[in-house]
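pinging the channel bc i need a second pair of eyes. not urgent but kinda urgent?? the chain im working w is below, pasted from the shared doc
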Amino acid sequence: MLGPRGHVIRELIVAIDDDARRLAYSVVEGARPPTEHHHASFEVRPEGARAGRLIWTTDVLPHALAAEIRIRVERGAVEMKRAIEASYG
């Protein structure tokens, strides 16, 4: 995967659960700033007939990086929403 500034980020898919609509992954190389630990998951929960809610949970060490990672997750969620809505345009 390419990071926000074009550098390569290597991720490991930890688990995929189609029934739970959940994917867990870990950044294993290329994190900027570097992390000691990164684990995250996406889960989609239905909300009505044509809507859903994305729950993106991220654990990161050192904890001092949490605020910066949160900003990136929030931006990523906005971009995913735009892409999904554009595909159903």
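so The chain has a mean pLDDT of 89. and The longest strand covers residues 37-46. — does that match what u expected or am i reading it wrong
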